[in-house]
Structures are given as structure tokens and as C-alpha cells.
Amino acid sequence: MCAVRKIAAMHTGDEGDIMSNDKCRVELPLPLQEALQSCRTLPSVPVVVLEVLDLCQDDDIGIGKVAKTIARDPALTAKVLKVANSPWYGVRSQVKTLDRAVTLLGINSTLSLALSFSLVRGLRRSRGSRFNHKAYWRRSVVAATATRAVGALIKTASRDELFLAGLLQDIGMLALSEAMPRLYGPLVASASGDHSLLVELERKEAGADHAAVGAWLLSRWNFPENLQAALAGSHDAGGEDEFEMLARSVSVGSRIAEIWTNPNTAGATVCSQIAAQAILGISPDRFEKLLAEIALDLPDVTQNLDIDIGGATVINNLFDEAREALVELNLQAQQQTRLIQIQAQRDELTSLFNRSYLNEFLAQEFELCRQTSQSLTVIFLDIDNFKLINDTYGHQGGDSVLISVARVLQSATRNFDTLVRYGGDEFVVLLPNTSEQVARMVSERICAAVAARPHKVADDAAIKVTVSVGCAHYSARHHFDSSTDLLEAADRCLYAAKSSGRNRVVTCESLARQPA
């Protein structure tokens, strides 16, 4: 069963697997319901819409029957012929008869076009006090075009069904403008084109937003339940069942419409891109392509429905602004990603590199030195009697000592040396392309600098701290098979330094001279 005919079947209750009434029923606050029910100028369904819906119920529907019904409406006939002759379909000879137009467009697309055009034509006659109908229809047609493109991307429903859902999404605004003319016009004006802000104001002042009112209105008109549900959930789409996907498409399409209707184009672009990814998982790259497709479709769609949104030049200029905003957003995302990566490589307490970074960097640096015949020194050190410091002054005092020792390492080494908090009270320093003698001097300078500096453990207390240092040097004279072997050699030297009295430096060379 085609999409529009399925809609009609749902309209009459013939479809067996449709959503139950409870899924799309909307409960409005009683005062708002009374205001809507007592409003004599509330929008009503155009007769031609009901005729088209009735036509869809016929299982034996054919091209001739569709053409005959549409022919009773001269304006609708002209519209169908105009669309059939548009560049979109690329016909070589002019389409002059309805039968051929319906054949070219297809029954489903013809009925959808008839529904959309008739709704726009009929409902545009409403005139609420201080309500900008031109702005309303401009946004509706952009939202419909965007919803159709979004839904086609995720393959959630037919293009015709998506377009209708997007077109009807804001229809509750027409009802509110008639039922609450003194309140609603100024309310829309105060939102200054920001649709999200308008929703907040509606919920605060009326007790429900226009999406809920629109679903209530479609229910009174006996419109299909999937359209009712799409409207009801369009501002809070987030469910997981199959009926939510149309609402999600409408929700994202509505946000994209802001790009062409909200004065803050850049801000609207950022918000809609974030929503598209959060609600439907549309990637930033695919989102930009989606906007390009919408901008390409808008001139034809607006012309077909006689809705003026400024012409192709305005549409493309706003698209260019949106694209610039996406470029800026992408740069910010890259910077944020880089910042997160840097933070992930740093020790939170001391701001030195962490062990995870060392594991990756040391292997790369060792391989580079091996290929270029350069040297690499690993200094491994830890704080003497650190457990006693923790037991005496508490973990806060111990953390203060760790931070203080890290600062000494920074002052006692060169800018291009790599400083790492290995874990606990252990630190590693990498010295690239450094001679064995200089590496020994740097190790002894670190040991002496830590011992010479008072280390605060509280606001009014400082203690003396020493470190034991192990130093392993890779060069043409001192070969190691891997970076792991080099690090383990420095660790053995550190152990020897602690075993031989602490507060000293032991190198691989001096360790080799010691008796077993």
C-alpha cells in the first residue's frame, strides 16, 4: 500500500498495524482546551483535502479517477500541470493533460501534492491578530522540505508522508493565533524568530506548546494517527519505537528550518547540526551535504506552493552563511578534540605526561634513535620514604610533595626533555640525543635540587625530601634490543640506588662495576 493510501486507511481505521489511540493522544490543559473549542474561527480542513483523503481509500484507484477528481479544482489542476512541467522531471515535450501529468508524477506524489497545496491554500485564509502569517508559511514550507530530505536520508518513510508531516508541524500556531489572539501574537513576536524560545514561552503562558495543539487539532480533523504522533513528539523526539522515527525527522527538519528563518543563521546552524547528530546520528559531513540538497530543492518547492521566502539568491546566501558556521563549528570541534587528547596524556595532579603517553612515545623515540644512530637516556627516579611522608602528613601532604618534586624536575631539565609521572611517587625523564656524561650530570642535578629545596606539606610546614635515581643510556656503545629493555635497565639502576643508601644516582655503567 502506498504512503498516501496508507494514510487514508489509517484515517478510516482500516489499517491493522497502526498506532493505537493511546500512543498519540494529547491532553491539553482544560483552560486551553476550552479556549480552542469555543473559538469560532479555528482553522478547518479544506473540503478538497477531505475529497483527496476519500479518494485515497479506494483500493481500485487509477490515474483516470485521480485526474477526474483533481480536474474539479482549476487552481489545483494548474498546480499539478506546473509541477509536471518543472525541470525536476525533465520532460521533453509540454505536459498538457492531467492524465499524463498524473502518469508522470505517479499517483502517490500527485495525491501528496494535492493535499499539500490544498492545505496551504485553505489555511492561509486564517487571520489571527498580530500574527505574521507570511512568516508562518515561509517557515512551514522550509520545514517540510527539510523534513523530506532528512527522512529520505535515514529511510524512515515516503517522501510524500515526510513532506506532509513537516508542512503540518507548526499548524498548532494557527490555532493558537485564533484562540488566543491578544496573547499569542505578542508571544511570537517576543521570541524574535527563535523557535525553541517560542516553545518555552508557549508552555509557560498557555500550558502546552503548538506541537501539542497541532496534534490535538489533527485528531479533531480525524487525520492519520502517525501524523498526529509526529506533531506531538516533534519538540521532544527521543523514543525508540518505530513510530518515533517520523517525529524525529520532523524534529530535525524543524530545527533546520531555523537556518532560513531565524535571524541568527550561524547560531541556528550550530544548534540544528548538533540536534541532527544527537537525534538521528547524522554526521557533520553528511549534514552539510543535506543542507546543500535542501537549498537546491527550496526554490522549486516554494514556487510550487506559492510561498515566497526570498528567491534562490536569498536561499543560497543563507546557505553560504550556514556553511561558514559549520566550518567554524568543525574547527572548534577539532580544537576541543585536540584539547581532550592532550588532557588524556597528562597526569591530573602534576600536569606532567602520564604513563600511557610514555609507553607510546618512548617506543617511537627509541625506534627513531635506532634508525638515526642517535642516543637516548632514560632517567627513572622515585621519592625516598614516600610512604612515611603519606602516613605522617596525610595524602594531601603527599600530593603537595609530588607537585613540588615535579616542579623541581621542570626547573632542572631542558625544554626539549620529556617529563613523566610514571605512577605513585615514580617519575621518568627522557633525554634525547644526549651524551652519557651530560646524562649523568642531569641526573645528579635533579637529585641535588630535590634535596636542596624545602617541600611544603601544609601551609605552615615544609620538609626535606630526597630521591633515588637510576639512569640508562642507549647509544652505539650501549646497546638495548627495545625501549622496554632500556626502561627496565633504568629501573634496575633505581633499585640499586635505593638499596645502596638512597639519595644518590646509579647508572648502568656504575652498576656494572659493582660486585655481584
Q: Regions with pLDDT < 50 over 5+ consecutive residues? A: 1-21
* Known CATH architecture of the largest domain: Orthogonal Bundle
CATH fold assignment of the largest domain: Hypothetical protein af1432
Percentage of residues in strands: 5-15%
Total domain count: 3
* Rg from alpha-carbon coordinates: 36 Å
C-alpha termini separation: 89 Å
Summarize the main sheet. 5 strands, mixed
Strand order of the largest sheet: 2-3-1-6-7
Percent of residues in helices: 55-70%
CATH superfamily of the largest domain: Hypothetical protein af1432
Give the total of beta strands.
7
Number of helices: 24
Mean pLDDT: 81
- CATH class label of the largest domain: Mainly Alpha
Structural class: alpha+beta
Characterise the protein shown here:
With 516 residues, the chain is an alpha+beta fold. It has three domains: 1-9 and 47-123, no CATH class; 129-344, Hypothetical protein af1432 (Orthogonal Bundle); 355-513, Alpha-Beta Plaits. Helix content is 65%, strand content 8%. It has helices at residues 3-12, 21-24, 30-37, 47-56, 63-71, 74-84, 98-105, 107-123, 133-154, 159-168, 171-179, 181-190, 195-206, 210-220, 225-232, 244-261, 265-280, 284-304, 311-344, 355-372, 386-412, 436-452, 483-499, 508-513; strands at 376-383, 418-423, 426-432, 455-458, 461-463, 467-474, 505-507. The strands form two sheets. A five-stranded mixed β-sheet has the order 2-3-1-6-7, sandwiched between helices. It has a two-stranded antiparallel sheet with strand order 4-5. α16 runs antiparallel to α17 (265-280). The chain is elongated.
